[in-house]
């Protein structure tokens, strides 16, 4: 399993942003964001994401949706 990037403290801040943008509070959103960060860090194709992050196509769809809504930019600014 790949090393995770988000601490519980950092996740609580990011989760608040997702809730502000009316993204439902689902447990897999943390896993999804970890998968997005992993892919950006490693540069692998979406289909090659490790299964521990969930289904690659779910992660990809959320990446597109969150990008279009500006949610990812807000999350990344919080991470910076």
From TrEMBL:
Domain of life: Bacteria
InterPro entries: IS402-like_dom, Transposase_6_like
Pfam families: DUF4096
Residue stretches making up the Insertion element IS402-like domain: 6-76
Coiled coil regions, renumbered to chain: none
Name of the featured protein: Putative transposase of IS4/5 family
Protein species of origin: Pseudoalteromonas denitrificans DSM 6059
């Amino acid at each position: 399993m790949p090393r995770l990037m988000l601490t519980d403290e950092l996740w609580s801040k990011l989760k608040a942003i997702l809730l502000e943008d009316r993204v439902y509070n689902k447990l897999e959103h943390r896993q999804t964001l970890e998968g997005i960060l992993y892919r950006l860090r490693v540069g692998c194709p979406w289909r090659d994401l490790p299964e521990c992050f969930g289904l690659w196509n779910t992660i990809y769809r959320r990446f597109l949706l969150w990008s279009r809504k500006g949610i990812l930019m807000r999350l990344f600014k919080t991470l910076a």
